[in-house]
Design a protein that fits this description.
Chain A: Keywords: 2Fe-2S, Iron, Iron-sulfur, Metal-binding, Oxidoreductase. The complex is a heterodimer of chains A (166) and B (451). Chain A has 166 residues and is an alpha+beta fold. In chain A, 45% of the residues lie in helices and 11% in strands. Chain A has helices spanning 4-16, 24-35, 40-50, 54-61, 83-87, 90-101, 143-155, and strands at residues 75-80, 114-119, 131-133, 136-138. In chain A, β3 (131-133) and β4 form a beta hairpin. Classes of the chains: A alpha+beta (166), B alpha/beta (451). Chains A and B meet through α2, α5, α6 and β4 of A and α7, β5, β8 and α14 of B. The structure holds iron/sulfur cluster and FE2/S2 (inorganic) cluster.
C-alpha cells in the first residue's frame, strides 16, 4: 500500500497527461524517494499506476544513473570522476570519503546514511573536484570541507527533505 | 571586456536575473516584436541571415534547421531544448540557465513561434535538479505575465513549456535518444527518423541547445548586422560561451567573441596556468575532441577555423593539461567515462571503447610495445563504423594522443611504464589540499549557482 497522498499525486499526474510515457521517470522518482530505492514493490506500483509492464520499467530502470534497483543510503554522494576532477585529485577525494565513512565505492555506511558513487561530470568542472549530494553541488573540495559537509548532513539527517533526483 | 549578450544580466552575487531584471535590459522585446509585427517566416529568415549555428556541438545552421519544418506539417509540433551537457569539462548551459532563465525561455518561445509549435520540452539532467526547480518557477512567472501559454501577449499564438527531468546518461544529449527518453523508451539513438518530420510522438520537433536558443532574442531585437559585428573571426557567428577548466588560474565560463583564439581564451580570460603549472595541451571542445598541438593555440575557436585545423569546436569547453600530467592516464580516464556511458547498442562502441582503454592500460603499465600502439590506432579508426557519433567522439582524444603525443606514448613502451611517476610530480590521487584559492562562497556552492 502506498500512502494515500502519494497514490493520488501519481494517479493525478497520469490522468492529466496525454502521454503516460512522458511521466514514467517522474513516477519512478516519486516511488523511489518513498521506498528509498526503486524496489520490486515500487516497480509493482509503477506498473499498476502507469499501465506499463514490468519489463518495460526494468528496461528503463537499468539504463539510467539516477534510478537505483538496490537499497542505498539516505544521502547518495555522487563524486565526479570526469577528467577535470581527475586532474584535481578526485582519486584522493574518493579515498578520503571512503576512509572517513568506512565503506568502499558503491557501499552504504552501517547507519544507512551515506552511499558513495562515481558519477559523470556534474557540470561543476570550474570548481573541481566536485560532488553532488541531495541535489546540491559542492566544489573545490578539501578534506576540511568534506568533513563539514558530512557533519552537517549527519546532524540534520532527519530534517533535510530529500530532493526528487537523489 | 567584449560585449556581453548572453551574460548581460550576470550578477556578481550569482543570483539568477528575475523577470524584472531581464525586462529592464530589453528582455521579451524580441518576442513582442515577433508576435505583433513579424510572420514566422520572417523570424526564420532573420535567424538564417544571422548565420547563427547550433551550439550543442554539431554547428548546424539554426535557421536552416527551423526551415525544415514543413508549412503543412501536422500539429502539435514540439521544441526540445537540450540541457543535458554531461560531457566532462562542459558547464556553460548550467551557468546560462542560472544567470538568466528568461533569456532561455524567450529563446524557446521565439523558436516555437518561428515553426508554429505548440509545446516546448525543457530536457534537463538529474544533477541539475536545482535548475529544474528554478525553471519551473520562472516558467510560471512567465505564464502569469502572459509571455507563455494561451494567446501570448494577446496574439493568436499559443505555446507552453514543460520541464522534463531525465534520469541521467550522457547519450540522452543526442537528439533522437533524447526524444526516446522523453517518450519513455530506452534512450538509444535512432538514425532513421528526421526529427523535424517525425520527432516526439511522431510529430515535427526542433531540437536546439540552450545556448543556441538563448542567442536568438538579441538577434531579433538588434538585427543581423549587429550580430555579425560581435564575432572575432569571419565565421565566428556572434558571441560564444567558452567554459575553461583544468590547470588554469581562473577556471570558469566566459562569453567572448565567437572565434576568439584558443590561446587568448586560456591565457587571457582564464588567467593562464596555475602557479607552478606549465601548459602541455588541451582538449578544446570537451572530451570528444582531440588533444591539440602547441601551434593550435593560434587557431580561432569557431566551427570552420577549427575544422580547417583538423580539430573540432565541440561545445567550446576547453580542458587544460599541465606538463606533468600523463596524457596516457588522462585518456584512460576519458575512455573509462565513455565506456560507462555507451548506450551499448552497437558493437564497435560497446566493445571498441573498453578495448582501447585496455590497450592504454597496458601501455601505462609498460606491458605494451610498438605493435600495440598500431593496434590502438586501428581500433580508434574503426570507431567511424559505429551507429552514432558517440564512438567517433570517444576516439578523438586517442587520435590526438597518437598524432601529437606519440613520443610521450612511446616513452611508456617496452617495460618502461609511466615516466610521470616519481618525486615532485603532482599526480592525480595525491589529494591533500587544493592548489587553488577557495574563492567560492559556501552558500553559492550549495545553491548550485556557483559560477
Ligand atoms: S555508437 Fe555507442 S552510443 Fe552510439 S548507438 Fe552505438 S553503442 Fe550507442
Ligand atoms: S569533470 Fe568533474 S564536474 Fe565536470
Amino acid at each position: 500500500m502506498l500512502p494515500r497522498e502519494l497514490e493520488q499525486e501519481i494517479a493525478e499526474m497520469v490522468r492529466e497527461t496525454d502521454h503516460v510515457e512522458e511521466k514514467i521517470i517522474d513516477v519512478i522518482y516519486l516511488l523511489q524517494r518513498h521506498f528509498g530505492y526503486f524496489s520490486d514493490e515500487a516497480m509493482g506500483h509503477a506498473a499498476r499506476l502507469t499501465g506499463k509492464t514490468l519489463v518495460e520499467l526494468e528496461e528503463l530502470a537499468t539504463f539510467y544513473d539516477f534510478i537505483y534497483r538496490e537499497p542505498l543510503g539516505r544521502f547518495v554522494i555522487h563524486v565526479c570522476d570526469g577528467v577535470t576532477c581527475w586532474m584535481h585529485h578526485e582519486n584522493g577525494l574518493f579515498d578520503y570519503l571512503c576512509r572517513k565513512l568506512g565503506v568502499e565505492v558503491g557501499e552504504t555506511t552501517a547507519d544507512g546514511l551515506f552511499t558513495v558513487l562515481p558519477t559523470a561530470c556534474l557540470g561543476n568542472c570550474h570548481n573541481a573536484p566536485a560532488m553532488l549530494v541531495n541535489g546540491e553541488h559542492y566544489g573545490r573540495l578539501t578534506p576540511e570541507k568534506v568533513d563539514r559537509i558530512l557533519d552537517n548532513l549527519r546532524e540534520n539527517a532527519d530534517t533535510i527533505p530529500l530532493c526528487l533526483c537523489r | 571586456m567584449s560585449e556581453q549578450v548572453l551574460f548581460k544580466n550576470r550578477r556578481v552575487d550569482c543570483r539568477p536575473a528575475s523577470l524584472a531584471d531581464y525586462r529592464a535590459g530589453g528582455g521579451y522585446e524580441a518576442l513582442t516584436k515577433a508576435v505583433r509585427t513579424m510572420t514566422p517566416d520572417e523570424v526564420i529568415k532573420v535567424v538564417m541571415d544571422s548565420g547563427l549555428r547550433g551550439r550543442g556541438g554539431a554547428g548546424f545552421p539554426t535557421g536552416r534547421k527551423w526551415s525544415f519544418v514543413r508549412k503543412d506539417a501536422p500539429h502539435p509540433r514540439y521544441i526540445q531544448c537540450n540541457t543535458d551537457e554531461m560531457e566532462p569539462g562542459t558547464f556553460k548551459d548550467r551557468i546560462l540557465v542560472n544567470t538568466d532563465p528568461h533569456l532561455v525561455i524567450e529563446g524557446i518561445v521565439l523558436c516555437g513561434y518561428a515553426v508554429q509549435a505548440d509545446h516546448g520540452v525543457f530536457f534537463i539532467r538529474p544533477s541539475y535538479d536545482a535548475d529544474a526547480r528554478l525553471l519551473e518557477r520562472e516558467l510560471e512567472v512567465a505564464r502569469e505575465a502572459g509571455l507563455l501559454g494561451k494567446n501570448i501577449l494577446g496574439s493568436d499564438f499559443s505555446f507552453d513549456i514543460d520541464v522534463h527531468r531525465s534520469a541521467g546518461r550522457y547519450i540522452c544529449g543526442e537528439s533522437s535518444a533524447q526524444a526516446n527518453a522523453i517518450m519513455g523508451k530506452r534512450p538509444n539513438p535512432d538514425k532513421n527518423s528526421h526529427m523535424t518530420d517525425s520527432g516526439l510522438w511522431g510529430l515535427p520537433t526542433v531540437v536546439n541547445n540552450v545556448e543556441t536558443l538563448a542567442s536568438v532574442p538579441s538577434i531579433l531585437r538588434n538585427g543581423v548586422e549587429w550580430f555579425q559585428t560581435l564575432a572575432a573571426s569571419p565565421t565566428g557567428d556572434g558571441t560564444k560561451l567558452y567554459s575553461v577548466s583544468g590547470e588554469v588560474a581562473e577556471p570558469g565560463c566566459f562569453e567572448l567573441p565567437g572565434g576568439t583564439r584558443l590561446g587568448d581564451i586560456i591565457f587571457g580570460a582564464a588567467g593562464g596556468m596555475l602557479p607552478g603549472a606549465e601548459f602541455k595541451t588541451c582538449l578544446p571542445g570537451g572530451t570528444s575532441t582531440s588533444f591539440v598541438a602547441r601551434e593550435h593555440l593560434e587557431t580561432p575557436m569557431d566551427f570552420d577555423s577549427m575544422k580547417k585545423a583538423g580539430l573540432s569546436l565541440g561545445t567550446g569547453s576547453v580542458i587544460v593539461f599541465d606538463k606533468n600530467t600523463c596524457l596516457v592516464q588522462a585518456t584512460i580516464n576519458i575512455l573509462a567515462y565513455f565506456a560507462r556511458e555507451s548506450c551499448g547498442w552497437c558493437t564497435p562502441c560497446r566493445e571498441g571503447i573498453p578495448y582501447m582503454k585496455h590497450i592504454l592500460e597496458r601501455i601505462e603499465a609498460g606491458e605494451a610495445g610498438e605493435r600495440d600502439v598500431e593496434l590502438l590506432q586501428r581500433v580508434a579508426d574503426g570507431m567511424e563504423h559505429a551507429y552514432c557519433g558517440f564512438a567517433p567522439g570517444a576516439a578523438m582524444p586517442v587520435h590526438g594522443l597518437l598524432k601529437h603525443f606519440r613520443d610521450e606514448v612511446r616513452e611508456h613502451l617496452d617495460g618502461r611504464g609511466c615516466p610521470f611517476v616519481g618525486e615532485g610530480v603532482a599526480k592525480p590521487g595525491l589529494w591533500t589540499s587544493l592548489d587553488r584559492d577557495e574563492t567560492v562562497p559556501d552558500e553559492a556552492d550549495s545553491e548550485g549557482r556557483d559560477g
